Amino acid sequence: MKTRIYLDNNATTFVDPRVLEAMIPVFSTFGGNPSSIHHFGQEARNLLQNSRTTIARYLQVKPNELFFTSGGTEAINMILQGFFAMRKGHIISSTIEHSAVYHTLQFLEKQGCRVTFLPVGLTGAVTLSQVEESITPDTCFIALSAANSETGVKTDIEGIANLAKAKGIPFFVDGVALLGKEPFHVPDGVSAMAFSGHKLHAPKGIGLAFLRSTLSIPPLLLGGGQEYGKRSGTENLPGIVGLAKAIELLEIELPKATEEMQSLKAYFETTLVNQLGNVVINGSGPRVCNTSNLSFPGLDGESLLIHLDLAGIAASHGSACSSGALEPSRVLRNMGLEKSLAQSAIRFSLSRFTTKSEVEMAVSLLVNIVSRMKRALANN
């Protein structure tokens, strides 16, 4: 049986068995509705609130500032559309945001707001000075990612948060691509954030919105008024318990795991560059520990991806939410990469469960595949 190596953890992660173990009793034993007043409902309510408290402690926020959603996309829409409903005006973002942010802001443009999509260069992130220079008297909020899901490049969230706080401007941060990669808490000055469970070894179908208690937005979903009136619908209690367990494990394991992933990423990139020569690492700014976005000039990324899959390596041609597109990555193109270079890019993303032997095997297979593809092109 072929050995398969999963290097697409920015698309989704496998559920940690310990997370699954924590979830199973919620399916079979704690089946009450958290909104019910009877015994079973109160048991469920206790699980819900205990999970919320666990997550709040890790993020260093108040429990009543966290709202469970169906995923990162819903959390992003809840916050961005909620901000817009409360205060219409000018929005600052960037050209390399995840589609859930980028397309939501394009939608808000059509509703009458003005959006400045800041350009980025080959570093892969906007700068503090860019944001500061873009602020106008009617700027109603700033929306940026903590880390880019395709390149792994991090944004200066702390610096921008300090600026936003000084200017009195709400600041939304898409934290989906950062949480689970390195120890993290919500910086002072950040008004709202979105997170996704399936990016950190919790199940799919559970997300999280953070909103400062000093701010108020209308709900995106109307109904029974769950989640402090911010998100109606019966809570996904198994998913919530799973998310809390995943974050509990992060608190224990991530400091060491971050160093290990950083070391594996460095080995992966350095060995490929040394053995293949012409490999471009996309995004020269500081990156999260697990992400390598590499271009292989002269090759077609889709073809390379297929060859990798046939060899047993799972990687990605870009964001999983946009990878069905035939055009090269919007993120890479907006960073200034030529179309051919963007088209040859592959994203490799590790998890804290990726082993050294898996990375070594992936490097060996990748070198052979790229060399073979280049020879085939030279002979045609």
Question: Can you tell me about this structure?
Answer:
The protein is an alpha/beta fold and 380 residues long. The chain folds into two domains: 5-13 and 254-379, Aspartate Aminotransferase, domain 1; 17-249, Type I PLP-dependent aspartate aminotransferase-like (Major domain) (Aspartate Aminotransferase, domain 2), CATH 3.40.640.10. It is built from eleven helices and twelve strands. The strands form three sheets. The protein has a seven-stranded mixed β-sheet, with helices on both faces. α4 links the parallel β3 and β4 (114-118). The relative contact order is 0.16. The mean pLDDT is 96.
In short:
The chain has 2 domains: 5-13 and 254-379, Aspartate Aminotransferase, domain 1; 17-249, Type I PLP-dependent aspartate aminotransferase-like (Major domain) (Aspartate Aminotransferase, domain 2, 3-Layer(aba) Sandwich). The chain is built from 11 helices and 12 strands.
Task: State the strand order across the main sheet.
Answer: 2-8-7-6-5-3-4
- State the order of secondary-structure elements, H for helix, E for strand: EHHEHEHEHEHEEEHEEHEHHEH
Uncertain residue segments: none
Q: Please indicate the count of domains.
A: 2
The SS-based structural class is alpha/beta
What proportion of the residues is helical, as a percent range?
Answer: 40-55%
Strand-helix topology:
Blueprint: E1 5-6, H1 17-28, H2 39-59, E2 66-69, H3 72-86, E3 90-94, H4 99-110, E4 114-118, H5 128-134, E5 139-145, H6 157-167, E6 171-174, E7 192-196, E8 207-211, H7 237-276, E9 280-281, E10 291-295, H8 301-311, E11 313-314, H9 330-334, H10 339-343, E12 345-349, H11 356-379
Helix pairs in contact: 1-7, 2-7, 3-4, 7-11, 8-11
